[in-house]
Amino acid sequence: MRHGKKFNHLSRKRGHRLALLRNLSAALIKYKRISTTLAKAKALRAYIEPLITKSKVNETHSRRIVFAYLGNKEAVEELFSGVAAKVANRPGGYTRVIRTGFRAGDGADMAMIELVDYNDVMVSASKATDVTTAASAKKKTRRGTKKAKPGEDNAEAQEATAEN
Q1: How far is Cα 94 from Cα 89, in angstroms, rounded to an integer?
Q2: pTM tops 0.85
Q3: How far is CA 126 from CA 43, 50, 75, 123, 130, in A?
Q4: Fewest CB atoms within 10 A around its CB: which of 37, 105, 132, 153?
Q5: Sign of CA dihedral 49, 53, 56, 59
Q6: What are the CA-CA distances from residue 122 to residues 30, 76, 84, 116 (Å)?
């Protein structure tokens, strides 16, 4: 039995699991988006989010702590210079896990994990959604709408429903 199991061990011994998470973390920092299994993506999210939080404070101590977890000088440099500047105002939630289906070979759940502030498509879409949500604050319902007959104009049909 696994009483008090706190995190996913990923069916690996401690050294192999730490090496895996170090390599995935360095790849995520370098490429800003990677594709892996869902279990690894969730484990990586729990591993890297505290490191990104530590990178907001650019001190020698925090750099040494992050280097102890990552073990990659280039990844530490990119984290403290590029990523920390983008996430400076964000209080948490630096990564996003998106399910992408199943792997063809063994049917494993696949996922894409990415740094939130680096996805321009999602950032612009969320801004556009905020604008359209504010513009269309009026409640929309499907009740009481009358379909326009072939000869009627759509505005006449709406006036007819408003009168009823």
Answers
A1: 11
A2: no
A3: 26, 25, 29, 5, 6
A4: 105
A5: negative
A6: 19, 26, 19, 8
